[in-house]
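Before going further, it is useful to explain how the protein records used in this thesis are read. An example of such a record is reproduced below.

***
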Amino acid sequence: MAVIGSGVLRGMGVTFKTFLETYPWGRLILRTLRIPVTNGLFTIPYPETKQQHPERFRYFPFLVYDGTPDNLRCVACKICEQECPPQCIHIVMEKDEQGRPVKAHGRTLPKQFDIDMSICMSCRICVDVCPFDAIEMDNEYELSASDRYEHMIFDKHKLLKSADYFQKIKPTEAATVDARLAAKKPKA
């Protein structure tokens, strides 16, 4: 039979143990009671030392290209623009004189691709809905500017990063994406 409020009491116990671990006398008390002790809370001397983030850490999206920036994976389908909850993605498709989409490398390309980073909430929905694996989440989080409007709106050229960069920052996820892209190639 479960006791009502036992989860709350366990949570308060974890909080109290963590509190005790932050002080030398608290660690001594825990060792006396034969409770395993960790280092407690600690502060990293930032910016001299940077914290190592796990591979699944995400901050802002970027556009992936294969080989050269001309070989962009994005085909300007605008799915990410439609699904974005804060509506921070803006895509303009390149069109010719007759109004037809311009094709390069066998697919359409975005003429303009902007993301307003001051609005982006790093939800990753744009990555999940992209059928071409053209947009991924970056680990770079040191983006600060004195002006909110000019410096925090990233255009296509600021967003472009190579597939090699993606493989370097997220090797497990990149391997999954590469396998998925390789499976699609024979069908085309």
User: Anything to note?
Assistant: The helical segments are 6-21, 24-32, 79-83, 125-129, 156-159, 163-169, 171-184. The chain has a mean pLDDT of 88. Residues 1-42 form one domain. The CA atoms of residues 56 and 170 lie 8 Å apart.
